[in-house]
Amino acid sequence: MGIIAVDEVTEAYLKDRERANGSLRAEPKIYHSDPDANYIKHLVIDLDSLSPIVAYPFLPSNGKAIDEAVKDEIEIDQVIIGSCTNGRIEDLRTSIWIIRSRAERLHRKTHDMIVNYPLPLKDTFY
Fold first, then answer.
1. Is the dihedral of CA 56, 58, 59, 61 positive or negative?
2. Most exposed residue of 29, 80, 119, 122, measured as fewest CB within 10 angstroms of its CB?
3. Residue 28 falls within a domain, yes or no?
4. Could you tell me if residue 40 is inside a domain?
5. 52-74 tens-digit pLDDT
């Protein structure tokens, strides 16, 4: 298990939400590593380099980066938005807002739905 450290972007987001709503629903618990902590492994992942995955037929394990799907001219006819833990209704509302605000760009065969599945943690993600 890992925790991604809070950065300036996250802190600014929280301050904006607090200003917009007058307060936060709960005071966030922000964790920091001990300066002398020992780790078995230290991973650094550039989140800006991650890309959404499109599952090609006929299995979810047949996933490819969205850039490749665009090149292959894959028609997306269903979208499943999932989360492991701590999936929030606000995240789903934001997803719905994004999709509806771009509705004219959706392929006409795309189902008008969003499904949220709690995804169990696995050793391998597809």
1. negative
2. 29
3. yes
4. yes
5. 888 887 777 888 888 898 898 87
